[in-house]
Amino acid sequence: MPNVIAEVTTEVLQAFADAWNRHDVDALMSFMTEDCVFEASAGPEVCGTRYAGREAVRAGFAEVWATFPDAHWGDARHFVRGDRGVSEWTFTGTRADGTRVEVNGCDLFTFRDGKIALKNSYRKNRPPV
Fold first, then answer.
1. Structural domain boundaries enclosing 30
2. How many CB atoms sit inside 10 A of residue 54's CB?
């Protein structure tokens, strides 16, 4: 069993969050395992929308910025315990129709071999501000 505690830290999760705010999909994918999964906060499935595999996850990440070109995750707070981690944040973004979103949310992570195997996102459901 690899020692993921030494490899995935709160600093790693902050670097991951920083890549989100730069809209840098290449940097984001460098944090992910080969068989990674992203479960988005919205979608038709009980888990939201599930993207499995590197190409699907990459497309799912890019879709967030297509929906919210000014997407930003602020006030990030992180913790890591063993092979699990959490990031809490406030998401702000504007859709193409001009509606603005500002909500609290979190990501629940599962790590393997020093990388993110699962990013499971949750956010509050709130009318546009």
1. 4-123
2. 14
